[in-house]
Specification:
By secondary structure, the chain is of the alpha/beta class. The chain has a single domain, classed as TIM Barrel. It is built from eleven helices and ten strands. Strand 8, helix 9 and strand 9 form a beta-alpha-beta unit. The longest helix has 24 residues. It starts with 13 loop residues before the first helix and ends in a 17-residue tail after the last helix. The C terminus is likely disordered. Its EC number is 2.5.1.54. Belongs to the class-I DAHP synthase family.
Length: about 375
């Protein structure tokens, strides 16, 4: 049936005319809790704050090339169950001591149109509830000593949770967005920009340059008031290679090309590259992620200094699932409802290999007489 354009109402009927020209497609407005109020109601512990501060500092040093560990963002594509997120974080925490060459943060994308927008996964869109659940989850995760990283999907929800995040990402579809570049310029943690969906790294580099400069833009305060936000600019920015429609971009030639472009655009900064093992680099097959990690490890083992981070889509159990007709009660335990993930056992193997590869890189560079940059603080073993 063809679409019929709504005709202009009688110009003498002022009420109908106003309805026609204003909010014609808006159903209604519901009150949204103020960020400051939610922050007051759900506060981080002293242990949480220490976890967040230390993780931000260490992540920034890795991005700056002043710490030779690898920043690993690992976890589900998105969170739909807080209890399972805690379970996964406890699995990570139990292994952290054995991965001393890695700085690990679970990826807890609570900003997706799910946990915050529809926490009950039933189309009820109880956003105020979702914000509380998300904030409480981040408090709980950081309280047990596990810092978190999250993708920033919009410019309002960060006001509710940004104080609990240690690293953030801007996705491939929003890297070109001026709003997200402005947002990134003002957050208090390192930010990674993914290359475009076509695989272009230039859009991510442009985003880095933009976000590292001051901005003034319209935003919302902690009190929920419209305001002009003025930022200093964020120097803790880097590129994320995630592949694209033209194919993967995690091989050594891709890393070298991206690094050279970054050096040209930001000559006084370390050319920091994170590699996303999923999405275009895995060709949307989660079972390919270990293969990507192995290629990364081979690059690290021969001294690549530009690879500073890795992203892995991982969950308790492998694969993905759709929400069944009966709703959340029918979901399988520990299985993603968005992108497919590798399971915990596979994750451990991948991180074990990355940990050894960082150690191999350190030894290789020492043998080559590598001079540590100013501010470098990690101990390096003597050459044999």
């Amino acid at each position: 049936m063809p679409y019929n354009v709504t005709p202009i109402p009688d110009v003498d009927d002022d009420q109908k005319l106003q309805q026609y020209i204003q909010d014609r497609r808006v159903i209604g407005y519901d009150p949204l809790v103020q960020p400051a109020l939610l922050r007051h109601e759900v506060q981080p512990t002293a242990a949480s704050q220490l976890t967040i501060a230390a993780a931000r500092y260490n992540a920034a040093r890795i991005v700056a090339g002043q710490d030779d560990r690898i920043l690993v963002i690992v976890g589900p594509c998105s969170i739909h169950c807080a209890d399972q997120a805690i379970e996964y974080a406890n699995l990570l925490k139990s292994k952290l001591a054995s991965w001393d060459n890695l700085l690990i943060k679970p990826r807890t994308t609570v900003g997706w149109k799910g946990l915050i927008n529809d926490p009950d996964i039933d189309g009820s869109f109880k956003i105020n509830k979702g914000l509380r659940v998300a904030r409480q989850l981040l408090c709980d995760l950081t309280d047990i000593g596990v810092p978190v990283g999250s993708e920033l999907l919009d410019t309002i929800s960060p006001q509710y949770i940004a104080d609990l995040i240690s690293w953030g990402a801007i996705g491939a579809r929003t890297t070109e967005s001026q709003l997200h570049r402005e947002l990134a310029s003002g957050v208090s943690f390192p930010i990674g920009f993914k290359n475009g969906t076509d695989g272009s790294v230039n859009v991510a580099i442009d985003a880095m340059r933009s976000a590292s400069n001051p901005h003034a833009f319209m935003g919302v305060t902690e009190q929920g008031l419209a305001a002009i936000v003025k930022t200093r600019g964020n120097q803790d920015v880097h590129v994320i290679l995630r592949g694209g429609t033209k194919g993967p971009n995690y091989a050594s030639e891709h890393v070298r090309a991206a690094s050279k472009s970054i050096e040209k655009a930001r000559p006084t900064n370390h050319a920091s590259v994170m590699i996303d093992c999923s999405h275009g680099n895995s060709q949307k097959n989660h079972n390919n992620q270990p293969k990507v990690v192995d290629v990364i490890c081979s690059q690290l083992a021969v001294g690549d200094k530009n690879i500073t981070g890795v992203m892995i889509e991982s969950h308790i159990n492998s694969g993905r699932q759709d929400v069944p007709a009966e709703g959340p009660s029918g979901l399988k335990h520990g299985v993603s409802i968005t992108d497919a993930c590798v399971d915990w056992e596979c994750t451990v193997g991948m991180l074990d290999r990355l940990n050894e590869a960082v150690k191999a890189r350190r030894n290789y560079l020492v043998e080559q007489g590598f001079q540590r940059p100013a501010g470098f603080q990690r101990e390096t073993p003597p050459s044999p």
